[in-house]
Amino acid sequence: MNVQVLKSLPARRFLLLLLLFQLVGYAQVNFTQSNLPIVIINTDNNAEIPDDPKIQASMKIIYHADGTTNYLTDQNTTAYLNYSGRIKIEVRGSTSQDLPKKQYGWTTYESDNSTKKKVSILGMPKQNDWILNGLAFDPSLIRDYLSYNLSRAIGYYTVRTQFCEVVLNGSYNGLYILQEKLKDDENRINIEAIDDSAANGVALTGGYITKADKTTGGDPVAWSMQSYVGNTDFIHELPKPEDVTSAQDAYIHQQFTNLAGTSHNNNSNFGTGYPSIIDIPTFVDFMIMSELAGNVDSYQVSTYFHKDIGGKLRAGPIWDFNLTFGNDLFSYGYNRGYYNVWQFANGDNEGPKFWRDLFDTPDFRCYFSRRWNELTQAGQPLNYDKIVAAINTTTATIADAAAREQARWGTVPNFNGEVDNIKNWLLQRSTWITNNAGSYTACQNPVLPSLVITDISYHPSESSQFPESDDQEFFAIKNTGTTVVNLTGVYLRELGTSYQFPVNSTIAAGETYFIAGNATVFQQKYGFVPFGEFQRTLSNSTQNIVLADGMGNIIDTVQYDDETPWPDADGNGMYLHLTATNLDNSLAASWEAVSEASLGAATFKDIAGVVLYPNPVSNILNVTARETINGFEMYNIYGKLLQSGKPETDRLQIQFSGYAAGIYFVKIETVSGSITKKVVKQ
Fold first, then answer.
1. What CA–CA distance (Å, rounded) separates 134 from 151?
2. Quick one: which of 26, 75, 412, 491 could link to 500 by a disulfide (CB 3.0–4.6 Å)?
3. Which of 185, 370, 381 minimizes the C-alpha distance to 280?
4. What is the pTM of this model?
5. Beta strands at 535-536 and 542-548: parallel, antiparallel or unpaired
6. Residues 6+ apart with CB under 8 A from 253
7. Helical ranges in 176-279 per DSSP H
8. Bridge-partner residues for 576, per DSSP?
């Protein structure tokens, strides 16, 4: 439930009186040096920092890159300044604003105070929006830091973090975490912002960032979804609430509605069920992180989702994990951090129904259990001993700063005791989840198709005829098995490039499908129609291409690179080709650089001599071949199967008279394989 609504006035007054007593009872700290970076903020005219709007200030960050002690006197030594420049800063947070120690959001600016400036701070990728996390309501000081680092350890982008100590307008202000703000860029949430005018088709499918949250800062509720206890509000993050159109709002809302319906009906079909809507691994891992930490806010508030153009709805990144590992807003009378309950069914902040409904579906729960078992094995990121080691390292790093934090604010009366409480709670929690997650036998060894990534053109050459490199990109997969593979549910799992195979599309044994960045340009350059068209682009340097089934099981994965030992296919008229499908394609030695000129219609099963005419077509499409046509399939541009048959003849007529004008794809299969061609209906 919404803490802002539920906290009682007497409890609030008691808390404020207690905090006032602490503020009076604890004095300034004589702060001169730290093993952590030192952040110095001076607001113009020593102005008090408001909640809104941001005010102008100067900031310096003292950081000895060699790990030696940082001194306050280093603030005028350029070599020791990680950042020195202008910012605009405001108080951030909701409930945390009740505390005397504030949290801050700030933006880096050029010296003109009006032009935002993207900078790299403490080794983090360039951006202009940053946060100073004040560790609100966390007497251990480590819960956010620990959670974010664990999330990164299991393979997800989560805000990068760096403990630091802050001096504000000449006074020591305590221990903070300097961290990124959640943003859409290739180094953070790697999605492409939706086009402002996107109103239909593929353009409308992304990218979005949406959150379940309470409203702060005046952001309106976009929609609400029913929970098993109350309702959950959703808020647009990307596009911004003031920019989102009715079509965009309706589209992303419908994704959540479809998820709610399919999960409630236990529909795990790859073509029509929840696996067709969501990226299963991100939802599983979001739940694992939320449940491991016992986050009392997860699912209901500070719960983010994102969706790239052409991609599936994804859960995360995790955010705001201070009320975790047994912690809660005890000052407000709350105590919900039990080790022996599922937070998505705790009778309070449960979030929308789809979380509990997903867990109650046998397939999803099996994958939750399997992944939990995987991540908690010895040496794995969520193994209890591994987490304890991370806790010990972290607490040793901030021990001196924790003492100063207590002296300044009085909020860490028993640092070691709080850390021990986390360890004890975590042991009970991990044991309870293991005993209650259920069996993963049914999904332990999924049967995966024999699909191999065989070709990658990530940085094609440019010419007067083909001036745009991105439009010429492609990758190819081959069915190396002996049977036809139904590609329903198969998709690219990693962010950066999006593609999902059409429902009920198939690939014959030995057949190769090319997926292009621009299907029209690909056909013009290589003389045949690619099977499909992916969204966004391939990286010109390095990228992990992950082919997965509907539940996210990895079928094949290749992380190419433009540097040695990988063959040189970087803008020089070459593309990467797997020399043999029985080789390990994760190894650079298994690949060669092949001339783009070598790829043409003659290399793509043209031996059958398949001809389709007339094209464009009005009523009847004629198909002829030098071999017997064993089968045909006709799809619309969205991948919906419209016609199919097994004519067993070398001549075929396909009726187009009943279809609307537009683009269609016709797949013809002969003994030599199959070929898919684009047909334009007039």
1. 20
2. 491
3. 370
4. 0.86
5. unpaired
6. 222, 223, 234
7. 246-264
8. 456, 593
